[in-house]
Design a protein that fits this description.
This protein is an alpha/beta fold and about 210 residues long. The chain has a single domain, classed as TIM Barrel, CATH 3.20.20.70. Helices cover about 35% and strands about 20% of the residues. α6 links the parallel β7 and β8. α1 packs parallel to α2 and α1 runs parallel beside α7. The protein starts with a strand and ends with a helix.
Length: about 210
């Protein structure tokens, strides 16, 4: 079953809706330049509202060590996500499993990054735009993703309209959505949340039915 991560959650109410809709993980953005950024106090409220067994993920972009530690001192995050140019040694020092995002810029050396971050819990492939590290709503050519024998996540411009095609084409272990379930940046729409997760589950069902034929 394809896991679903809802990123950019900013309130307890949205956390509850996402969990009720069937989300497997919630992402909290600690990148201050993002329109979806949360304060530590907001993050604590989201974590308290998150259902048991739903993973909470804290997203950072080239942070200082003290910045991450300050968040971890107050927030019981299950996992960290690094979306900048962080080294493997940097990512691994916090005593939490981590996800390393790879922005699919034109000349990115995917294999080198995969090798460097071989101890990451998962890698996340996202669209690239020079003015933003993620959350752009852009897609990229999914065919650029190499065949992997490790957990990986697909992000970048996913919506309820295209996520089934992505699952059919590249079969990610998980998908990550933010803008695709919003009315505006940071404003998660309950109907779009449900529609996205339903589209993922329907795509999984079709995949299993096709495999059984």
């Amino acid at each position: 079953m394809t896991r679903v991560k809802i990123c950019g959650v900013r309130s307890a109410a949205v956390a509850e809706r996402a969990c009720d809709a069937g989300a497997d993980a919630l992402g909290l953005v600690f990148y201050p330049h993002s329109s979806r950024a949360v304060s530590v106090s907001q993050a604590v409220e989201v974590i308290h509202a998150t259902q048991a067994l739903v993973t909470t993920v804290g997203l950072f972009v080239d942070p200082e060590v003290d910045e991450v530690m300050r968040v971890l001192d107050s927030c019981a995050l299950d996992c960290l996500q690094f979306h900048g140019s962080e080294s493997a040694a940097f990512c691994a020092q916090f005593g939490r499993p981590y996800i390393k995002a790879i922005s699919m810029r034109p000349q990115v050396d995917v294999q080198a990054l995969l090798q460097e971050h071989q101890n990451a819990r998962a890698v996340l492939f996202d669209a690239w735009r020079p003015d933003a590290p993620g959350g752009t709503g852009d897609t990229f050519a999914w065919e650029r993703i190499p065949v992997l024998h490790r957990p990986w996540i697909l992000a970048g411009g996913l919506t309820s309209d295209n996520v089934a095609a992505a699952i059919h084409l590249v079969a990610p272990q998980a998908v990550d959505v933010s803008g695709g379930v919003e009315n505006a940046a940071g404003d998660k729409d309950p109907g779009r949340l449900r529609a996205f997760i339903a589209a993922v589950r329907q795509a999984d069902q079709r995949k299993h039915e096709d495999a059984a034929v």
